[in-house]
Write a structure and sequence with these properties.
about 250 residues
């Protein structure tokens, strides 16, 4: 008892309790606090579960679904979400981890995961990479997004052609394509095996556009930007479709 009031000891620090209690305020009196640090998310989520405040759990979970946070720290979000038994947020974070290399570096919240949990995530990542790599031999889809490669519009192309047909696209071989296209496909699929996501395609495509424009080929340079943009969009859709079929075998 202090000053006539009961004193109840709690394990949470003052910052965590302050955030937790601010979430309890009516929205007409105060705005919900911002959870910009993942350490704060972990502490407040555990406190909300401890005191059975489901409404706050759901609000805290929204922070783990913030794309800005997921793009920077997907592995940390995954660990926090799974530790908090937040299924949807865990699955979303797992998908964002595909932007990272297969073998992750150490991160603080790794201690929240068991060896089985981490193995499940790495297996999911590897399966996604393998499934996406299989697209290398079959990129079926719309012909209009690649016809610009072979239709030079009577403009002489100064780029060397690929000597062999490596890619079966849209059900038929793509012949008479420039060597830089094969280089782009080879490099993209190499990286996709480790990072099977749209961001990989966009990064490789941008590098190719810059490289081709630097060559000043009269046929390729003026059209490579728009052509690669359209093809990358289709490519990303294919990758998304394949990845969506891979299941994360994780218990909740």
């Amino acid at each position: 008892i202090k000053d006539g009031l009961a004193v109840i000891p709690v394990s949470e620090d003052s910052k965590t309790l302050d955030t937790l209690l601010r979430f309890c305020y009516p929205c007409t009196l105060a705005e919900d606090p911002n959870l910009e640090q993942l350490k704060d998310v972990t502490d407040v989520l555990e406190a909300a579960k401890k005191y059975s405040i489901g409404a706050i759990e759901r609000k805290v979970a929204q922070a783990l679904s913030n794309p800005k946070i997921l793009e920077v720290d997907p592995l940390r979000c995954f660990a926090i979400a799974h530790h908090g038994q937040l299924r949807d947020e865990t699955l979303l974070a797992a998908k964002y981890t595909l932007r990272q290399p297969l073998i992750p570096s150490w991160f603080e919240e790794i201690e929240l995961l068991s060896a089985t949990d981490l193995l499940a995530l790495l297996t999911y990542h590897q399966k996604c990479g393998t499934a996406v790599y299989a697209l290398k031999t079959d990129m079926s889809g719309r012909e209009d997004v690649w016809s610009w490669l072979t239709d030079r519009q009577n403009t002489p192309c100064e780029c060397p052609n690929s000597p062999v047909c490596t890619y079966n696209m849209f059900g038929t071989p793509v012949n008479q394509r420039p060597q830089w296209w094969d280089d782009f496909m080879e490099e993209t699929f190499r990286v996709l095996r480790d990072k099977p996501c749209e961001a990989t395609i966009q990064a490789c495509a941008e590098q190719t556009v810059q490289s081709v424009r630097a060559k000043n080929c009269a046929a390729c340079s003026p059209r490579v930007g728009e052509g690669m943009r359209q093809f990358s969009a289709l490519f990303a859709q294919k990758v998304e479709g394949v990845v969506s079929q891979v299941e994360l075998e994780l218990k909740f």
